[in-house]
Structure formats: structure tokens, C-alpha cells
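Q: I have 487 residues here and want to know how they pack in 3D. Can you give me a structure?
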Amino acid sequence: MECKEFDIVIIGGGNAALCAAISAKEQDSSLRVALLESSPRKWRGGNSQHTRNLRSMHDEPTDVLTSSYSEDEFFDDVFKVTKGQTNEKYARFVISKTPQIVEWAKKNGVRFQPSMRGTLHLGRTNAFFLGGGKSLVNAYYFTAEKLGVEIFYECEAVEIIPKENQVQEVIALDKVRNENFRFQAKSFVIASGGFESNLQMLEEAWGECARNFIIRGTKFNQGKMLQALKDIDAKIIGDPTQGHMVAIDARTPKYDGGIASRVDCVSLGIVVNSAGERFYDEGEDFWPKRYAIWGRLVAQQEGQIAYSITDAKVQSAYMPSLFPPIVANSIAELADKINSDKNLQMSIDEARLTKTINEYNSKVVEGKFDHTIQDECHTQGLEVEKTHWALKIDTPPFYCYPLRPGVTFTYMGVKVNMDAQVHRADDSLFENLFAAGEIMAGNILTQGYVAGFGMSIGSVFGRLSGANAAKVAIAKMPPKPLAKQAK
């Protein structure tokens, strides 16, 4: 088996891996750094290619963020979505570093667009990449290549070879040549994503209902390194059923639907299951703080499908999905169109849907509707109330987006310390093994999600892991010979 030798080997090809590669080179430009990307070049970047922004604190307006967003408010948002189940020390560490990340990204070729306005309410909290995640990925690859990072495409790491408390080498499959290679290095960074694309692993965690899940991102996050870490007795943390799962358009392809597949009108109407019944408060909070709970909610419904229904009054208040809505001039016609769509493989109870909407309309307490604030429009007297943005659904045409659970990334991963070093099962540390991105996000995220935080975690721990891997590699290098003094 051919052996390739480097100072640092980075496994993964998305945001966290690229941040690690660039950061390592910043420590010492002479370091030989390899990056192993399991996808072909055109699909490089993992889930990062589908992102749009990263969440960042700031004490005053910036060129890309409005007003201010303090560390405490940022942490409170994380605390709420995780229901208090987060490591405050780690979370605040990431949050405090986000302003530096935005500036570092700019320095390394990433461009940001002016702050966003509208129903997403993110102009104050999230910095948006100009050109989206694909542009960010391309900018980082350009910088990494310019710095001399050697990139191996279609090269999938499959096994980690340890020696005592260190990693000696990684075995990787060259998919083009169908041949294994040994990659030896002084230090290693694993930034290979979660296991969300591995349908077998999803089904082992969730049961048969996982067959109806759609994977929002790359098909290359197969969890191979997670299994390899288990095999070398790394400390695995997190619930395999927890992750970033949102409600997306049910007509989305199985993989790589990306951000465009998300349905953003949920808070402006009602959501019913195939029995025609509502099952959760659509207006609980602003969409970016609650959108990530809806994937799990839909996953709990029969057939893992639900339907977001609005009317003509709110059509201009949200961004459309990847697919056009199902449109009808009556609720009966809407149900008939849903039931005639063979691609959905589920039907809706028309009589119950009509009854649900009539009951809902009768309990709406009318007020001044304003989707930019938590307004006073609500229901009163329903088993499942709607807290804000409750308008009667009574103005045709009526619109429906069918929903399924869309998995973005999983939270089960490996434990790391504050230097991004990987823990062993006995809580000792691997001296030369680091982790960043989705594969260690479970150190902070246990459940729930707040928009853009995954990119924040990946960026901060990506830079950190690369810098610390470089320090280990430099320490292992033989001393340079002293220059001879002239006589």
C-alpha cells in the first residue's frame, strides 16, 4: 500500500476543514498540509456549499450587521433552543470568537453582502455570504491552494491507525483508482461532517420512519470517520436521533436540496398532518429561532408528512420554496389536489381539514398583523393555540406546501477539549488528533438549533484545530541546523 507523508492531514472538505488547513498554514507556511475531500471537485465543500450565513455577536453596527447582538443575547438564544442542555463554557467561547471569524473570512477571500431584511429577521444576527456557501467554499479553496495545501479529491478516509495516545496514520480510499493509500502525518484534524447521509445509520437511530427523511445536504457525509473514531476508543457523545432537522418541501430530491428547499411560510399560516389536524403552535417565536424544531415535529406525524396552508393575504410576506405551492380556490379543491399528487404518497382527510380550518378561523382574536414583530394576532380557545401572526384562512386562493423532515446534520460525535483535541474513552487525550465542525458540534448542540450557529462552530473550531495541529507538528520537527558563522 502506497504511503504519503505530510506534516498535517485534514479529513474533510467543508468550511471547518478549510479553516483548519488555512489556519495551519498561517502558523508556518512550510508545513506540508494535505486535505482529503471524499467528493469529486464539483461537489466539494460538504454541507457548507448549501449555507448562506454565520451567526455573529457584535456590540455595534458593522458593514454587514445592523444594531447590536451581545454575547449574552446570543447565548440566551442557544440556551433556549437547546432547552438549557448546552455547555456554556464552550458555547460562549465560540460566540466570543465570531467577530474575529467574520474579519478572518474577509481576509481569506470571503465576501459578505449587506444585511438582510424581511421575514427571516436575521439582519442583526447573521452575516450573509455574497454568493452563498458555494462562494465561501470556493474562496477558501482558492486561498488554501495558494498557500500550498495539497488537496485530494474523491479520497475517502476509512480507518484511523493509532499508536498508544497518538494517531500514526489514516487509511484512505482513492475512489477513482479504487485503491487504498496510507497517509502518515505528525498531526491530524477530522472535520468530515456527521452521519446524516448514511441512511442505514439514520434508520438504526430512528427506525423505519427514517426512510421518509430527506437529506438537505451532501450525500458524502456517510459517518465513516465517526465509526473509525469509535474503533479507536475515542469518546463518543450525543444522541444519534438529535440534529439539525427542519421542515422542507416534500418534493425535494433525496440529497442536496439545500437551503432552497426550506419552507418559510409556516409561521404565517397553519400546519396540519394527514389527518387534517394541527399539532403545534406555528407562531411560537420568530422563524429562525423555531424553524429547526419543525423537522422533528413532522417526523413524529404519520407517514412523516405535513402540510403548511396559507391564503392570499400573506403571499408577499415570505420567500417562496424551491417548488411552487399547490394552489386552489377552495379548501375542498386544495385537499383534492393534494390527494391527487402521486409523488406525495399520502392523502389528507378533506372533511377534517375543513373542520380544522373552520374551528381555527372561529377562534382567531383579530389584531394588528405585523410579521416583523411578535404581534397581537392570536387564537383563544383551541387545544393547540397559535400565539402570534394568527390570521383567518378565508381569502382565496389557498396555498399549500407539503412538508417532510429535512436532515441537515447530526449531533452525535466526538468529545473535544477547548483546544479541539479529541478525548479518548477514558477521558485522556489523543496528543495529535483534533476535530472541528459537525463531528464535534455535539459538545455544544444537544438539541434544537439557531440559524447560522453551525457555521460559527465550524469556523471557530476549524481555525483552532488547524492552529493547534500545526503547533504539534512543529514541535515534532527536528531542529533546524544553525547557520554557519563567517570567519
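Q: Anything worth noting?
A: The first strand starts at residue 3 and ends at 5. The first helix runs from residue 15 to 27.
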